[in-house]
Amino acid sequence: MSHLRLLFLSLLLIVILPIAAQMAPKRDFRGVWIHTLNNDYKGMNEIRFREYITGQLDLFRDAGINAVLFQVRPEADALYNSSYEPWSRFLTGTQGEDPGYDPMAIMIEECHRRFMEFHAWVNPYRAQLNTSTRLAAKHPYHRHPEWFFQYDNKLFFNPGIPECRTYINLVIADIVQRYDVDGIHMDDYFYPYPVSGQTIPDEKEYAEHGQPKGLGIGDWRRYNVNMLVQEVQETIHTIKPFVKFGISPFGIYRNAKNAPDGFGSDTNGLQNYDELYADILLWLRYGWVDYIIPQLYWEIGHKSADYETLVKWWANCSYNRHLFIGQDVDRSAKATDPVNPSINQFPRKMMLAQSQPTIGGNCFWSGKVLLENPGNVFTLLERYYYRTPALPPVYPEASAKAEKVKSLKAVWTEDGYILLWNSPKLKRLWDVPRFYCIYRFTKDEKINLNDPSKIVARTRNVYYKLPYVNGSSSFKYVVTTINRFNSESAASSKTVKL
User: Fold this and answer.
1) Would you give the DSSP letter of residue 461?
2) Sign of CA pseudo-dihedral 185, 26, 252, 292
């Protein structure tokens, strides 16, 4: 590291350390988006793919990341062994060609090995990124061309056709049933982003389904998306109640000046409600999503969409659902702090998000850029913001209580002291422990499970080898169970003299 870079980092830390020292929550969503339509995996065999992603995941783990949102369905295709759709061209270069391995299965295995959540990121409506590419024989377009329309040289499922919702739910149900995912994730692509001079070709479907309901075309389009969101959550939770459903909408719900009731943000940009037909606040009010991650990619001080304005606006509109902030790593690193121009905006953005009690974490776009460490963002996460581990938030709020471990004891062996315990009684699928959390306190220290700095290990084993400590000391070790809802059990403790 150059002397100049060391000096810059030192100055940056002087600014952020007082902030970071106060911000080490035990429950915190720390996610990254990993997109797959960038051809990073093209032509890889299983060995190379595993090497590549495990190298990335190791680094994410070092930086405190605890959730990976991996794109598995970019264009009605699959980066997994799908029952309905063809293998993605972003694996081999040819849609429908079997790569010889299952990327999603490997990602799930490796994420869970590192105690990270895995969220399968699906694009619900987009079916072809460019109409000039070849669609494999297994692509749904060949079975039901009447389900689709072209817009902006892309192919989309028509949200106004009820059979499309049924099909998308079948695809998601297939993933949830066959794979050990922790979440299903959708991004901001619902109705297509508007293009000047082009009209969405859904007049026929509107006349058939929207007009008889007495809905204007905008309300009808929102109704179609609302129905999909509601049905997807029901599909997921009917199969596995502990699998989360989250969406990362475009960062502006509505501009206040365009809203008849004035209910919007002080912004001037593209709107979810009016132009993408995504009524996010309705989904939150009715509890149809377990979390949202609005993409607040703009800079602090942006003329049309100021980051600070939007963070505070969304913080007041969470409706008791989990709210995380989508952060653009590159833009944050390149923009200068409006108060201290000698540093970038990342520390202030983190401070603004963490100062809002309704905001429970962040997600970084993109994971690949984060690893490049622009503006020392990765370094700051690793050394300061995320230097202590954090458990993911509990989902949903009325989740099942985790059961305590049984018969905790310390046993001396030739290799040293080992903590042993029995698994809790398993009554339901979600009672199976995701992992066990190990805390350590000094003999006279009060047990405080809210202090993440006391977490010394996580394990899926029913034992833990106690580390050697110089000199004779007594410690209180605490073991808790984390279940599939991320609920934590009561403490089981044992005092051990080492």
Assistant:
1) S
2) positive
